[in-house]
Amino acid sequence: MKQVEVETAPDPVDARLGARLAELRAERGWSLGELAERTGVSKSTLSRAERAEISPTASLLNRLCAVHGRTMSQLLSEVETEPPLLVRAAEQPVWEDRASGFVRRSVSPPHAGLRGELVEGRLAPGADIAYDRPPVPGLEQHIWVLEGALAMTAQDVEHRLDAGDCLRLRVWGPTRFRCAGPEPVRYALAVVLP
Q1: Which of 11, 79, 94, 172 fits as disulfide partner to 16, beta carbons 3.0 to 4.6 Å?
Q2: Distance between CA atoms of residues 74 and 187, nearest Å
């Protein structure tokens, strides 16, 4: 029996995100090769992300945000329609990095002109995400653990946070977020541009 390959349409958010990434690259006049050199990501991966053939990982988006001078929330808000003042819980954009077990909810109504934003992060047991650089150097973060346990590493120091704990820091280099317990961890992340 002959197997038939079924093509599925790309996720609408991934399609809009891919188109925006291609626009940002074109605005700077960069080829895929130039962007690959700046991010350390292969040309084929960048091309597939722009064409929405793959759903970008958190690490990939972080690298792209760094070269484009945006936070992840800013980039994701750019693929939304006109930003509202109020976003109901059911309408808050959720993005999932299935490969790492990371789910990100943009809690704050998106607005490109504001310096602060609120994000909810969830990590499955065993999830471990490493970012090689901040999207914007000197980014201020307040990490408040709502449920579970989180191990957050910055400047080669690991901080263990349990439910109710809050860590404030400025991010200048690599960071790592790891679910530190047997249960999922849920945390609020307040991000403030320098």
Answers
A1: 79
A2: 19
Q: HEC string of 45-96?
A: HHHHHHCCCCCCCHHHHHHHHHHHCCCHHHHHHCCCCCCCCCCCHHHCCEEE
- What is the rounded distance in angstroms from the CA atom of residue 126 to the CA atom of residue 117? 27
Q: Can you tell me the distance from the alpha carbon of 91 to that of 112, in angstroms, rounded to the nearest whole number?
A: 18
CA gap 138, 131 in Å, rounded? 14
CA atoms within 13 A on the CB side of 128: 4
- How many CB atoms are located within 10 Å of the residue 7 CB? 5
Whole-prediction pTM: 0.65
The pLDDT tens digits for 35-72 are 999 999 999 999 999 998 998 888 898 999 999 988 88
How wide is the angle at C-alpha 132 spanned by C-alphas 185 and 19, nearest 5°? 90
